[in-house]
Amino acid sequence: MNCSVYSWKRWVINNLIDEAREQYIKGSRPRFITSKETKGSSVITAEFVQPDLAHEWIHAFLGSLGAFDDVNSIRVSAKHSTGPAVGIKINDTVAKDISFVPTEGAPHIVKWNGIWIEVGRSAGTPDWRTGAENGAKITIMMHHAHHDALGELVAAAREYWAWSSSTNITIHLADSTSWTKVVKKSRRSLDSVILPAGVKEMLLEDTREFVRSAQWYKDAGVPYRRGYLLYGVPGAGKSSTIHALASELTLPIYSVSLAARGLTDFGLQSLISDTPTDSILVLEDIDCAFPLPRRGGGNDDEDEEEDENPAPPWQPSRREGRTSEVTMSGLLNAIDGVWSEEGRILFATTNHIESLDPALIRPGRLDVKVHYTASKREQSARMFTRFFPAGDYPCAAKQSPEDEVPAQRELLFMDVQRLSELAEEFAAGLLEDAFSTAALQGYLLLWKKDPLGAVAGVAGLVQQYEEEARTREEERLKAKAARAKFREEQAERTRTNVSFVVQPPPFPGGYAPYPDQFYPPAITSPEDAIVPAELLAGI
């Protein structure tokens, strides 16, 4: 096509080209761009690669624009929780809890904000264990000349992803080298986590203050990071607290196990570097990675407390044979070293804070420490009222959770006041600092439709706890006695059976270079290895 412009002004030609380009963009669906045309000034090309979080943003956003509606190659997975937030629009009533993800194929064109966008997708490798896809890539070509349009697209994709994730949170799990699994979980209300009064409010306010204080940290010259250590008895709600806080803050969770097989210092740093800012990094059961002998006076009782379920003396300790290669120095550098990442909230959990190195839990690395104990009576009462809101409940309690419920039974409406009274009665029947939150939750689940039965069964629950406590104490004393006997037998063998290394041949002519030095007799038979007591006294 030839075009003649009758003017001496160069700007006339430029304006004509700009107007023609705008009309082209606003007009009908354009043709696909060839590889040569991608080098032109009117096309912007961008790539989004897993596991970067921007890939999730653009995938969900383009799916909402219908970019994958006409694809013919689809990968179907029943593991919906590991799939992307938005893939292909399919009626949920027809295929509920199933993930439909477009695979590699021909590019597609979609229009956004008056700009035509050509979308191409390279499929990654599906993980047969989890259904997650690794290494997928989305390539877009924008029919536009300014980079600001790409920035606006990414910002819109991020905003849409945050909005679409308002009903769930994303949890990323790692192996030794990369974030390989993505799990979608429903958001959890902080009110559902039963902690002592003021604890969760303090954590929520502290994390919110950190998120909105990025500029303050920069102006003050303080590294922009915040660490929390949640420690205490198992089942007290440490992981549930992290889940609820992530839901309140609308932040993704990145969880890594320091005991993962093959994990190295470099691998740990790479994993942390791949996490985005404004995210929560979780190191669960951190004491399992660097077990230290628990500090004590060395007596038998303290030695026994070192392990509630000790291995037999002849078996290697469970602290041996670590599969991870992460060192304490590597972990400390990853948390707050010169090359450590900033802008993330770090949560570490442990059941035994006394097993951790003091250098790891000092302020600046783990700034806030929260102790989780067994449930107080006040917590138990609040958990009861949460399980049993005002409503209709049976007038009479069942004898046990396994009893069959009659087809016709009389119901009685219980208001908040009546249920509060039952909650106080329930809490009064429990032992203080005896039951974990998880244990009480498991018990109440057995009676979830029978508050009177839950209160009536408290006595049996306490009796069962006391019997199990006696059994554990008897087993502990037996294990202690077995270890003491084993140590005595070892000491006795050491006193009566001392083995010497076989003596070299005598010097020629019986000459000894050091006459005053003791030379044991040559060992020629097993009986010679037993040294008399008087000879030992002269050594």
UniProtKB/TrEMBL annotation:
Major localisation: mitochondrion
Chain residue ranges for the region called Disordered: 293-325
Classification via CDD domains: RecA-like_BCS1
Topology in membrane: Single-pass membrane protein
Domain AAA+ ATPase: 224-376
GO cellular component, one term: mitochondrial inner membrane
Coiled-coil annotated spans: 462-494
A Pfam family the protein falls into: BCS1_N
SUPFAM superfamilies cross-referenced by the UniProt entry: P-loop containing nucleoside triphosphate hydrolases (SSF52540)
Residue intervals of the BCS1 N-terminal domain: 44-193
Name of this chain's protein: p-loop containing nucleoside triphosphate hydrolase protein
Species the sequence originates in: Exidia glandulosa HHB12029
